[in-house]
Amino acid sequence: MSRPARAIEEPRRRRGLFSWFFTVVGIVVALSLVVGGFYVWRLWSTASDIERTNTLLPAGDADRPAADAAVAGSFNYVLMGSDSRGDGDRGRSDVLMLAHVPPTRDKVYIVSFPRDMWVEIPGRGQAKINAAYAYGGEELATRTLESLVGVRMDHAAKIDFEGFTGLTTELGGVTVTNKHASNVGEYRWPKGKVTIQGEEALTYVRQRHGLPNGDLDRAERQRAVVKAILVKMLTLDVLANPVKFNEVMGQFGKHFTVDEGLTNQMIFSTATSMKVRGGDDIVILQAPISGFGTSGDGQSIDIVNEGQLDEMAHAVRTGKMADYAAKYQDQPLAGGR
């Protein structure tokens, strides 16, 4: 009679093992759902905290590129940063960039427009591009950018100085390759890799005096820091650390302003459609400059390379920025290849 007893006991032991296994799996799944739920909540909360306004994009369709001027499936954002320090001061657009994503969604092309570019500002005539912000705020800055590339901006985002410094601080600093040794006040940056954050990062991206190409070197630094921020946010140090992730997302929510059309649903829809996997998929470029000059009223200006700008604008409209970037990514900041 002993055999039947053992035969009965074995299935019980197996059921115990199976029960233990599925209990552990259930706990892991539950924890994953809790953690995943936290990330979803944090992202949604951040998106909800972002200030929205109707002043970033031009109102109506008058004198704007057609809504279908760009190839279907691509999208274009204008990114702005103002040098205003508050107290009612509008300031000028210290940072003006185009973020272009092709229909494949596997790349982000960030093109900066140096603030001394001498361009046609709609309704105002020729001036430095950053004057558009002073003349007509974000709306005119966006309209000026649209007129240069012949594409309507789908959305717009603006960050203030406090947000910029706070973001680099929450990330624990960002590392960039510094092409030219320089210093400003107490800060000194040797040639090579430097890690910056907070007020130092802000000082670094604002410096122009003491750099060989002045405004163009400043714009290059801005592009490098923007990319470094994006790359740092994609690292496991941030994504796998709920506390760090929460702190960084909090900075986004407090200091970014976007257009009213960039709803939470739009942000999530865009984010889930992206196929960017790392820093190599974020390509930074400068709007083409042929050299330097002086305006009729004595201002030092950056002269636009009109032919290459037309080529870039065509690449944005047709989703061919990969070809444009391959051709021009390594050219000097000013002049030909």
Describe, in plain words, how this protein is organized in 3D:
The termini are far apart. The longest helix is centred in the N-terminal third of the chain and has 48 residues, at 2-49. It is globular, with a radius of gyration of 25 Å. With 337 residues, it is an alpha+beta fold. Helix content is 46%, strand content 22%. It has a single domain (50-328), classed as Aminopeptidase (3-Layer(aba) Sandwich), CATH 3.40.630.190. It is built from ten helices and 15 strands. Helix 3 (161-170) packs across helix 4.
Keywords:
single chain; 337 residues; alpha+beta; Aminopeptidase; seven-stranded mixed sheet; 10 helices; 46% helix; 22% strand; disordered N terminus
